[in-house]
Design a protein that fits this description.
The protein is an alpha+beta fold. It contains 2 helices and 3 strands; from the N terminus they run E-H-E-H-E. The radius of gyration is 16 Å and the shape is elongated. It has one domain: Mth169, Chain: A, CATH 3.30.1280. The longest helix is centred in the last third of the chain and has 16 residues. The chain has a 3-stranded antiparallel sheet, covered by helices on one side.
Length: 82
């Protein structure tokens, strides 16, 4: 089983990296971009025997303990069979 984890800053947290990307896009001639938020994408491969419920429990724990900072970041994930 594979988990595709997306970690993003919470909406109320300023994103200076996203703002720098927005300005760079504008300087490259891309008009009409009003905002950019930068996040992380993480793939986690789990054992073939891991069931969907166990996978969700493990991924939730991984995100809460290491992959995301719950104070300033949100996370979501998709699970797919390998």
């Amino acid at each position: 089983m594979k988990a595709q984890v997306y970690v993003t800053l919470k909406k109320e947290v300023l994103d200076p990296q996203g703002d720098a990307v927005r300005r760079a896009l504008e300087s490259l001639g891309f008009q009409g971009v009003s905002g950019v938020r930068v996040g992380k994408y993480i793939e986690v491969d789990l054992d073939e025997q891991t069931g969907a419920d166990d996978a969700r429990t493990q991924i939730d724990a991984m995100c809460a303990k290491l992959l995301a900072n719950p104070v300033i970041e949100d996370f979501r994930y998709d699970l797919e069979e390998s």
